[in-house]
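hiii, so i know i said id send this last week but things got crazy w the move. better late than never?? heres the sequnce for the chain we talked about at the cafe, plus the structure i predicted for it. fair warning i was half asleep when i ran it
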Amino acid sequence: MGAEETACAAGGDPARAPARTEGGLALKPVVAAFDFDGTLSEGVSGLRFFHQVVGTPRYAWFWVRRLPSLFAYGRRWRHEESLDRINRHIFRGLPVAEVAAAADYYWRHTLPRYLAPECMARLHAHLARGDRCVIVSRGYELYLHPWARSLGIGDVISTRLEVGPDGRLTGAMPEPSCDGEHKPARLLRLLGPRENYELYAYGDGPGDFALLAAADCAFVRHGRGFKPWRAAAT
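okay and structure toks below
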C-alpha cells in the first residue's frame, strides 16, 4: 500500500496517518482544502450574515419578499441567479466599512456557535502536521478571511463583493461565486501545477463534488465527522 493509500485508509485523519516518507525522503507537501458551509460549520453562513448586516426587521421582510430566492440559494437551485438578486437587495449602496464592521462582529461572535467540533478537529490536525490548509467556500470573504487568519490560515478562496469607486458595495460580484466547478479551478490557480502536491479535500454536497473529484483523498461530511467520498457515493 502506497503512502497516499495508507493516509486515505486512515480516514484522512492526519493524526492517524503514518509519516509521509519514502526511502527516508519526504514526499510531496500536503494541501488540505475545506469547504465551510455544512462541512466545518452547520447550515448556511451567508444567510446568517445577511441577518447580521440588515438587522431582524428588514431580514424578516426580506424573507417575505424574497423567499424563492433565499430558498433557492440555500438549496443551490439556480444558484448564481438567486445569489445575484440577493446580493443586490442586501448589499447595494452600503458602505464597505459598515459591512466589514458587521462581518467582524459576525465572525467573532456568531460564526463560532455554528462550528462543528469534530470536523474542526480534522482541520486542526492538518494544521498541527504542518499541512497547507485552504478554505474553499461559496461563503463571503468579508468574514471567512479574518476567521481563517485567526486560525493561522492564510489561503481563503471565497465569494467576493464588488466595491465601487465611492467605497460602497455595488451588489455585484467581480467573478462567479466560489461553488461547483469554480472551486477546483480557483484552487489550481492558487496552488499551481497539480502534480506538485498531494490534495486532501473535504465537502458536504453537490457544490463540492468537483473539488472532491480533483483530490487524491476526498472526504464528505457524514454525521459528526467525515467518510471517504467515493465510498459514500457508491
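btw The first strand starts at residue 21 and ends at 22. thought thatd interest u
miss u guys!!
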